[in-house]
Write a structure and sequence with these properties.
It is a single chain. By secondary structure, the protein is α/β, with parallel strands linked by helices. Helix content is 43%, strand content 16%. It has 11 helices and 11 strands. Strands 3-2-1-4-11-10-5-6-9-7-8 form an 11-stranded mixed beta sheet, with helices on both faces. α7 links the parallel β7 and β8. α3 packs across α5, α4 packs parallel to α5 and α8 runs antiparallel to α9. It is globular, with a radius of gyration of 20 Å.
């Protein structure tokens, strides 16, 4: 699909280092991406002060908001108490057609709740899921894992819906013709796992709209044998953070061990391009965050600790999802396969 100009609403007040790191990421993205307009949502005074530290930066639009949802706050209650919070305003921009996507590094539960309340769910989807892209042992291949934090507990039908959404994402964004779908489990056999896993396996096997190839054990996640792996958000969030920690440790160990001694220093210099490529493959900041699939709008949920580089890549990911028309593709795949879900009053989240 051809690339079109996209407007990305950035929750500039969400994140551990907001708004400075978020604004820096917006500037980086606006500089590198010629077909993107980043909208900063937040306190105008604070945001302008951050922009003033970058005198040569491109001009960015600021949309005023009042306050943010703190990490200790219960999402739904806080969103209702703070209707003008930055995440609420960001989602409303998409709802009103003034933006094409939202990026937030703030409270992930609040981002999901705001998306549900403001944008609504897609027809046929009971629970949205956060999809994350993991590297594999094949340089040219990644695997999409979902859910990585939106739903602590899942029913079999939720996992089946995750598989459909993950397949659409893998096909249209990752370019995989017939994505191989796996169910994260403790063994390859159909009978392995708890009751939810066994029933989910049966449902996935019977679904003609996905290419389900069986259970995926923990050692299979990064094998490259699967394009999509589904699990509940409790397990997925642990898996995500563990994988990121391992990646950081590997990079740190290489930095510490390779330069030891004269030969090590020479070797490290010679291997510098290879090491940069390795870091690029395993660095979570390369993707910037996970796409919230199942809501009627593009929403990227980034890590609270995101730096400018990660935020810029999250904006890039949002632009890609807009270009690939992911929301419409998911809706096309799920329409008429399930009744319209009724609004829920609770949101399960890892944060």
């Amino acid at each position: 699909m051809a690339s079109t100009r996209a407007r990305i609403a950035l929750d500039a007040m969400g994140g551990d280092d907001a708004p400075a790191a978020i604004v820096a990421g917006a500037i980086l993205a606006q500089t590198e991406l010629t077909d993107v307009d980043v909208i900063l949502v937040g306190d105008p005074v604070q945001l302008q002060a951050c922009l003033d530290r970058h005198p040569n930066a491109p001009k960015l639009e600021i949309v005023p908001a009042e306050g943010t949802i703190e990490m200790h706050e219960e999402p739904l209650g806080a969103l209702r108490r703070k209707p003008k919070a930055s995440i609420n305003v960001s989602m409303q921009l998409v709802k009103d057609g003034r933006a094409d996507a939202v990026v937030s590094a703030g409270h992930s539960g609040a981002a999901m709740a705001a998306a549900l309340l403001r944008l609504g769910r897609l027809r046929g989807i009971d629970r949205p899921a956060i999809a994350a892209v993991f590297p594999t042992n094949r340089a040219d291949k990644s695997v999409v894992i979902l859910d990585v934090g939106a739903n602590v507990d899942c029913r079999p039908k939720y996992l089946e819906q995750f598989a459909v959404m993950g397949s659409v994402y893998s096909q249209y964004v990752m370019g995989v013709a017939a994505p191989k779908v796996g169910l994260l489990n403790i063994g390859e056999e159909e009978s392995k796992g708890n009751e939810v896993a066994v029933k989910a396996h049966e449902s996935l096997q019977q679904n003609e709209h996905i290419n389900f190839v069986g259970n995926a054990e923990g050692r299979d996640v990064l094998s490259g044998n699967f394009d999509v792996i589904v699990c509940d958000g409790f397990v997925g969030n642990i898996l995500l953070k563990f994988a990121e920690a391992v990646g950081n440790i590997v990079v740190q160990m290489l930095k510490e061990e390779l330069p030891r001694g004269w030969n090590g220093k020479v070797g490290t210099a010679l291997l510098a391009p290879n090491l940069k490529r390795l870091k690029k493959r395993i660095d979570a900041a390369e993707h910037g965050g996970g796409l919230l699939l199942g809501v009627d709008g593009v929403c990227i949920i980034s890590h609270g600790s995101s730096d400018a580089f990660s935020i810029a890549n999250a904006i890039r990911s949002a632009k890609s999802a807009v270009d690939k028309n992911v929301i419409a593709q998911i809706q096309s795949s799920t329409r008429d396969k399930a009744p319209q879900p009724q609004p829920e009053t609770t949101v399960a989240t890892s944060d």
